[in-house]
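Design job #97: recover the sequence.
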């Protein structure tokens, strides 16, 4: 195949140049001028040619089980989905598998695996269009050994947890992931996390974290992440860096100063983000952590118990994310509740004639699910500042969906359809927050380097042929909060491992995706930068 006559952005951040890309098998054979005709020719005249984009925070693992095409992300140029924040991958025991099946709402599939490597292998066996890779979740590890209890592990239990991390690293995990605002992960203290991160570091892994706070204790949470990086000798990345709630927006200066100071000291601290000022998570996240002990069924039982419910009501709050009128549920299990999708908690409370806090507990008890919701809580000015940071990569924090079938039973956050196109359209072309070569570097070679994905993230001879061809003048996110199930436009062609997956803006049906493993030469300890403060 020859991709001919495009403007090549090779992923390094350097100046673009006119040229061709020749592909042989699953690899790039030449970048520059190609005189020979290819067996297959793609006309890229007037278009940008770049390495495939890497989604640093993806929840597409479930969606890909039922639709391997990965439509909403492929149509934005994403050729690699990176999992790990959620606990639905592996390792899983029988009880965890039952819980995971019970919590499935619209996207339903069997769970036949017990290990992280097992699900990655199952995805490839079923056939997927993008490549996939994953961290091992510390939540999985904790539940395997401690269940949903709020206590510290004994020495023998911690040894078993570390062994599970080492097993996952041997299966190809990228490192250790935490989601510390959610129970039972929030029950872990810093020393437990350091011990697990050391086990990941022994396999050359990275520590990546949805930190313990993104609001009132944001700065302390950053300090904890830096401590884990330093004491475990491991690079660290912050999932979806943000400042939640208006009272916390001014903390951006201190937050960035802490990260820059850690980088200047020689630690490799990076971050990723999504390109929206609204987040999305379960409505149950407003419930205090103690009420989650024992798992989801125990939470629902507490919400249905009058005495315990009164205690929960005294502690429930929309803060620090915002106000009740800034929270919109977008998914319900119970069909009777689905007419409420898209309304704010305040609006739902008014319809029901109940206070907002009682309404939230009513909904969670009735639906017996987490109730995925959108939280309008961040500053657009802060989003722009973070987009410009040289050590920032990008992740949708969403699934890869299609406006059809089971996916339409719920609403979603528009980031599932528009996160990457929004970066290139709004923040690069329209607002000039950063230039296109730099944006492409941070979608490609920066995350590939951080994840140690060898021969990915650059257009160069011998690299794997993950390529996106798009129009910088027209690329656009079209999904909105009111109508989120709308594809982005402007991406013409996507190639994964040398196989066209998107052709002329339409999916070819090809599913050449692979499970990727990090390259760990010599299994180095520690995460020091080659030069403090450098961008990669």
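Job complete. Output follows.
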């Amino acid at each position: 195949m020859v991709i001919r006559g495009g403007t090549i952005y090779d992923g390094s951040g350097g100046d673009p140049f006119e040229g061709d890309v020749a592909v042989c098998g699953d690899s790039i054979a030449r970048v520059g001028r190609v005189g020979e005709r290819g067996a297959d020719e793609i006309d890229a005249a007037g278009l940008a040619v770049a390495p495939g984009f890497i989604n640093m925070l993806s929840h597409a693992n479930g969606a890909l089980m039922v639709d391997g095409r990965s439509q909403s992300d492929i149509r934005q140029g994403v050729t690699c989905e990176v999992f790990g924040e959620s606990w639905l991958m592996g390792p899983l025991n029988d009880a965890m598998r039952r819980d995971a099946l019970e919590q499935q709402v619209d996207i339903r599939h069997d769970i036949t695996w017990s290990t992280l490597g097992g699900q990655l292998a199952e995805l490839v066996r079923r056939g997927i269009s993008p490549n996939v890779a994953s961290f091992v979740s510390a939540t999985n590890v904790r539940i395997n050994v401690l269940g949903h209890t709020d206590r510290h592990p004994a020495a023998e239990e911690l040894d078993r947890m570390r062994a599970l991390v080492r097993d996952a690293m041997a299966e190809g995990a990228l490192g250790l992931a935490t989601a510390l605002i959610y129970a039972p992960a929030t029950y872990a203290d810093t020393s437990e996390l350091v011990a697990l991160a050391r086990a990941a570091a022994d396999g050359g892994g990275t520590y990546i974290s949805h930190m313990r706070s993104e609001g009132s204790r944001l700065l302390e949470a950053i300090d904890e992440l830096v401590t884990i990086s330093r004491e475990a000798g491991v690079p660290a990345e912050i999932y979806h860096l943000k400042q939640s709630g208006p009272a916390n927006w001014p903390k951006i200066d201190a937050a960035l100063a802490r990260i820059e100071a850690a980088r200047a000291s020689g630690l490799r601290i990076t971050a990723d983000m999504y390109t929206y000022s609204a987040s999305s998570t379960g409505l149950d996240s407003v419930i205090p952590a103690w009420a989650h002990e024992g798992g989801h069924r125990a939470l629902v039982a507490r919400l249905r118990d009058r005495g315990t419910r009164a205690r929960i009501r005294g502690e429930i709050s929309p803060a620090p994310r915002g106000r009740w009128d800034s929270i919109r549920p977008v998914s319900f299990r119970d069909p009777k509740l689905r007419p409420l999708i898209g309304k704010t908690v305040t609006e739902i409370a008014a319809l029901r004639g109940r206070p907002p806090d009682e309404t939230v507990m009513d909904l969670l008890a009735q639906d017996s699910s987490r109730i995925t919701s959108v939280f309008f809580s961040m500053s657009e000015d802060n989003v722009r500042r973070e987009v410009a940071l040289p050590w920032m990569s990008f992740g949708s924090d969403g699934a890869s969906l299609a406006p059809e079938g089971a996916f339409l039973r719920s609403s979603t956050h528009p980031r599932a359809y528009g996160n990457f196109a929004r970066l290139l359209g709004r923040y690069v072309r329209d607002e000039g927050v950063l230039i296109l070569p730099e944006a492409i570097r941070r979608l490609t070679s920066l995350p590939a380097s951080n994840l140690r994905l060898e021969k990915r993230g650059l257009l160069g001879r011998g690299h794997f042929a993950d390529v996106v061809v798009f129009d910088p003048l027209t690329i656009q996110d079209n999904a909105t909060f009111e109508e989120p199930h709308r594809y982005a436009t402007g991406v013409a062609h996507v190639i994964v491992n040398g196989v066209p997956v998107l052709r002329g803006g339409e999916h070819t049906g090809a599913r050449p995706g692979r499970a990727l493993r990090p390259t760990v030469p010599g299994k180095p300890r520690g995460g020091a930068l080659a030069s403090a403060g450098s961008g990669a």
